[in-house]
Every structure is written in C-alpha cells, then in structure tokens.
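Quick entry between incubations.
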Amino acid sequence: MNQQTTSMSPENASGRLLNFHIFRYDPQQKGDKPRTEVYQLRETPGMTIFIALNQIRQQQDPSLQFDFVCRAGICGSCAMVINGLPTLACRTLTSKFKQGDITLMPLPGFELIGDLSVDTGKFMRELAERLKLWLHPHHHEIDVHSIEAPMAPEQAAALYELERCVECGVCVSACATKQMRETFVGAVGMMKIARFELDSRDGRTAEDFYHVIGNQDGVFGCMTLLGCQDNCPKDLPHMQQIAYLRRKMAATIL
Amino acid sequence: MTARTLIPRIFSYQLTGHPWSARADKLQSATGLMLASFLVFHLHFESSILLGKEVFFHLVQILEGGLFTDDGRGVSAFTQIFSVFMLLIVVLHAAMALRRFPSQLGQWRALRGHLVCVKHKDTQAWFWQLATGFILFFLVPAHLFTMILHPEIGPNLSAARVVQDNFWLLYALLLPAVVIHGLIGLYRVAVKWGLVSNRSVLRKVIKLLIIYLILLGCASLLAYVVIGLDLPSQVSPYISKI
Ligand code: SF4
Ligand code: FES
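Done. Structure below.
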C-alpha cells in the first residue's frame, strides 16, 4: 500500500460509495418482518465485507447482527450469502464487486439468530452426534505401555487436507439437495465421514459407514450438484471425496 | 433433523443404510448411461437421411436385422421388440429418477428460493435436467408407443409420419429435451462416480455435443419434412435402386 492510500480515512476519502443491501429480521422481536435495508459506505483500500459490516454497526446501526471471531478465514463463523454466493465475509474484498452494490443475506438452511447471524454450531453438533464424527479406535482398552502405530506421512497429509474444514456451513447452504431435504447430511457430514474412513486409526468398516450414510439422506441422496465444491472457502475436494465414498459404499452392496 | 436423530437406528431405515439406496443409485446411473449412449447412436443413424434416401434405406435394413435374413431385408418386428425393451429401460430409469423429484410443494419452494438466492451453474444445469426429465416423462412413451404400434421405418414412410401424421411436432419438442437431459446426465454420471476430475473441460465438451446433436437432429428433421412435403397422399414404401 502506498503513502497516499494509507492516509485515506473513511470520512474524507475519495473511495467509491458502496451500497449495502442487508437482510434484516430479528425473530426474537415480536412483530418484526423480514426486510432489506440499505446502508451507504465509502470504500477504503483493502476493505473486506467484515470491515464494512463493523463500520456500519459502529457508525450507522448498532442493532445490526452478524458473527465474526477470527477475521482471517479460520473460525468459519462469518459465512453469509454475498451477492448470491455463500462465502466467508472476512475473506471477501469489497473491491471484487465492480458495481458497488452488495447484497448480504444470512446463510439459508440454518436457524436464524437475527439479521446475518445464523446458528451453525447447533447444526454441526447434531450432525456430529448423528454421524458419530469422532475417532472410534480399533481397541477400546487403553494400554499406556503399547507403542502408538505410526502413520504414513502421505496419509497424515491427506487427513490434514480434510481437517481444514472450518465448519462454516457454506457447503450446506450452497446445496439445493440439502435445502429441499432437511434430513440430508450435506457435504460437510460426508467430508467428515471420508476423513474417518481414511484414518488408519479408526476401527469402523465400510459396512459401519454404510449404516450411517448408505441411504437417501446420505451419499445416495446426493445429486452431485457440487454447490459444495464450488463454494467451499477452504477449497476442500468434495467432488472427489463424495465420489470416493459413493463408490466405496456402492461396492459394499451388490 | 432434530427429533428424528433421536430415533435409534434399528427402528428407522431412513437413518440406517438401506441396501436399495445403493442399488437404486447404480441403476439410475447405468440405465441413464445406456439411454444416453443409445440417443447418440439413434440421432446419427436417423441423420443418414442427409446422405440420401438410398443410404438411409440400407442402414435401416441392416439395423432391422437384414444381415440375418435371406433377402437382406430387415424385419420391422425387430423395431417393435427393441422399442419394448427401450420402454422398459425408460420406465426403470424414470422410477429410479423419481426419487430425486421434489414431491412436495415445500421442496419446490425451497428449490426456487435456492435458485434465486445462490447463483450456481451446476445446480441450474440440474434444474434443466429436472424440467426436461418431466417433459420426457410424457414425450418418450408417446414416441415409443408409436414405434411399437407402427414400426415401419423407411425414407418415405418416416417422412410421411413426420409430415402427414404431424409427428414433426412431437420430434421438435422431443429433440431438444432429450439431448439436454441426456447430455447433462452424462456429465453428472461422470462426476458423480469420479470418472472425470477435470470438470471445466468436460463441461465444454458436453456443451459442444449438445449444440452439435441438436443441429444434427434439426437437419435430419428438416430433411424428412422436405421429403414428406413431396410425397403423394397415398405413400408407398421406398424401392431401392440397387
Ligand atoms: S467443507 Fe468447506 S464449506 Fe463445508 S463447512 Fe467445511 S469449510 Fe465450510
Ligand atoms: S471471522 Fe473467522 S472465518 Fe471469518
């Protein structure tokens, strides 16, 4: 950033005027109706949607609700639909939108807390309980004297790749199948199953996994629309992993 | 998801794996693959009319089993048997695909809301597949029943069907619907089972194929219309000059 741009402050800046069309609705408030409100803001260099929302809340409307924690694409709490694309607000630059009109909607498919804030945590927890998304070791007795089995570096790397999921919920919102079928596990669930399926420390067999995702609400309900793959802010390989699971699950049944 | 999650697995097939889920998915892909491959051949065979009546006539004789008859003539009963077989495949494919069909108003509403809210190419492509699938549900049986009841195929007889019996309307509707449905379907089968990893190339190939097949089909249909307009009202089968 050069001298001139850093000295710019929002008030006297010559940045362009951005129009934020923001979904507003507070389910806690009696009689409140869903509506869109427009806020205007001058763009500053390097501005993200996250920065813009904070400025709006600070300077224009303290009642505006939205989530963020890490502002660096790590916690996954700031996901919302930005001009038709579900993604992380803290990783989206306002400069991306040439028109200067930015529409913000809460992630569909989750419980709305208010305005742009949704409860992804509750969803992820229920999903983890339903699919048993934790490591099921081969042996249940723990022997502190036995030496841990080594893991091949390639496997560790592959596991790490899938572990990068930040549970933002974007893949759930981007999936038309999930929107139509509430009981469908969605991409995040299948990605996590794929992660444990890959893990040599996990004792579950293909049949065990079939019991959890071998149905219309699991891998065979997926219509391969790939909204998950195309929108995941962490670029996880949904297409490849879900296809792998599907082949694996299909092979367990004749 | 909430309340149903609490139901123990053994009591609900919806929450446990169901063997037919895998089978249905495999059957849907397999029958779809068969139908789409057949479509590609079908469109090419019928386009042989573009090379002249003679070529088309002989191709039909071969395809109707002319290689196995004494006089080298095909038997149209073969078309009937084949049409019945295709009808069975279509019924099986439709039955499997119906699982995907949004069945409640709420699902339609969710789908519409989603399509409006989230802009995503593959989802839109699927929507087209859904819409064309619905149309084909009626048009394909109509086409197949015609072939079962009136299996005569030939340069003059087919052209008469198109023009005098007004079947051009059915074919004009069927062609784009079936090409779009089948080729998007091929794309989906390929990515669904992980047969292709480069989606952008595949997408381009499929787009080109859709355009090519529709043009090919339109040209053939036009050729039949041109022939059909020239026919007398009492149509007699084409006589080969060789
Ligand atoms: S898979 Fe990607 S889109 Fe889905 S929750 Fe994880 S990080 Fe978000
Ligand atoms: S604030 Fe943590 S991912 Fe955006």
